[in-house]
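Input sequence (237 aa), recorded before submission:
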Amino acid sequence: MQYVADLHTHTIASGHAYSTIAEMVQAAQEKGLQMLGITEHAPAMEGTCDAIYFQNLKVVPRQYENLEVAFGVELNILDYQGNIDLEERHLKCLQYAIASIHGNIYTVGSRQENTHAYLCAMENPYVRIIGHPDDGRYPVDYEAIVRQAKATGVLLEVNNTSLAPNCFRQNARENYKKMLDWCQKLEVPVVLDSDAHITYDVGNTCYTLPFLKEIGFPEELVANTDLNKLKRMIWKS
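Predicted structure, token format:
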């Protein structure tokens, strides 16, 4: 399976990542990627950049030889109503947004409450990806989430870091099997991302690609196997 773009990565600006933009770009070029997405954590995450950082990203180049770089944000879902932690005036400066649940910010709710948080976040027009919806500590109704993804055009992420044996997220394999079964039944595409916090993980699919092969998930439902297809899904162009 061809893998052309990694849309979920972090630099030192996120506070708990370890490489610069230039270093991440070089790593993406060496991996042969066509697009790198840099998505720093939004302000509710401890240690990350302030909102003004996102506003000033206009000064950073978007093209590095054959590599296209897109700048977004990984928003924090704050509550069961799907509220997020970056104002619209800053979201307008970005090319896309990922919305994720993080345990140091979000209070664990019931299955219904957690599901409602995701469903509401997907209604936000700036949210184009739901990040790592796989953590068993936050049980959800995967049928409802996949149906909402189909209705809104938001991509559900299969996160390489979540599938790593040492990841703190719980039961990711089992939860992805449930989610991807519904994606296949309803023909809902997904996006594969590394969630890299250091150069060595840029474009890393060492867990996601074998996992998809293991469960027989169809390549045509993976958005980032073709850059034009991915752009149509993210930017609806």
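Checked by second reader. The mean pLDDT is 97.
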